[in-house]
Write a structure and sequence with these properties.
30% helix; elongated; Immunoglobulin-like; six-stranded mixed β-sheet; 193 residues; 2 helices; three-stranded antiparallel β-sheet; alpha+beta
Amino acid sequence: MKRIKFLSVSLVLILSLYTESMSESKSTVEEKLQNASTAYSSGNYSESVRLLEEALQEVRLKAPLVIENFYPIRREAPYFGSFEPRGNNIYETNEVLYFYLEPKNIVFVKKGETYIGGFFLDLRFKNDKGEVLLEQKKFLDAEFDSRNPVHDLYANITLNLTGVAPGTYKAEFTVRDQNSEKSASVEKEIIIQ
């Protein structure tokens, strides 16, 4: 009987510590938002921005990984946001395929004076029946180190499908965070003629 009581006391203690830790995190974000609002109201815009960025960083740690702006594009984008969507998803045989995507909420970990973050991109190429014709883990391995966390990340993806028969296919990309268990997948139908 004592063991059951001890177990239930331990469980209650663990749950209360977890709840306390969650509410501390919540109050930290809320405090930063409140302080940012106060700084903004008093005209201290730089302080307001700093506090908002700190709060946003905490929220990003808990937010799921999402992929925005996933498009087939005409050519590789030279920098973040500078992509030109392709007019359609129809390609000639042996034509090079370009894709663009922006992973959001990648986790950056502080190591010394530097923040390290990154993602892996996995590729699956499927036929119209859903059968996987090509699969490659870590098709892209992107790691970044910076004095500050970087959140405007993007990936140019180039596929050379030499010798692929005409037909309808799906290109599926999975982004996996290097510092957490977060991941997200997107896919596009493509037609080779």
